[in-house]
Amino acid sequence: MSGPFDNARYEALLEGLEITVxxxxxxxxxxxxxxxxxxxxxxxxxxxxEKAKSWPFFGKFCSRISCGPFGSTVxxxxxxxxxxxMLRPFNLRDMRSDANEVVFLSPxxxxxxxxxxxxxxxxxxxxxxxxxCSIITQEKxxxxxxxxFSGRTPGS
Length: 156
Known about the structure:
20% of the residues lie in helices and 22% in strands. It contains 4 helices and 10 strands. The protein has helices spanning 7-14, 24-30, 43-52, 107-112, and strands at 64-67, 84-87, 92-93, 95-97, 103-105, 118-119, 123-126, 133-135, 140-143, 147-151. The strands form 2 sheets. A 6-stranded mixed beta sheet has the order 1-10-7-8-4-3, with no helix packed on it. A hairpin with a 6-residue loop joins strand 7 (123-126) and strand 8 (133-135).
């Protein structure tokens, strides 16, 4: 009779599974996120992160990267008929900022709560729902909390 972990049984247990062995010290030294979830260390993700080491930083292509305001800073009760357009994730369709269903905020409100402004030809990424990407076609917009922007610094 063979032992409980002979090669045949070990191979049978592993069939269809993937194992990555990484020491905690190596994880902490190699990654600032200090994540320990298994999906982050699957072989495909490890390979992608290794490949990404040779990619240029996004900042090489733009002068600023910004996220939308924190949480519920902007409520639907702040919307109005005209003003500064506020893009939301579903406005980023087909690689352009969809003008349908765009809401507006008063310039005073945008200024008072110090919302960031973005301009034509900046790039927006939706970070929730269907992750979309779009070039901004409007002259000036602000963004919901669920969007990340990259673009030029005003005046550059």
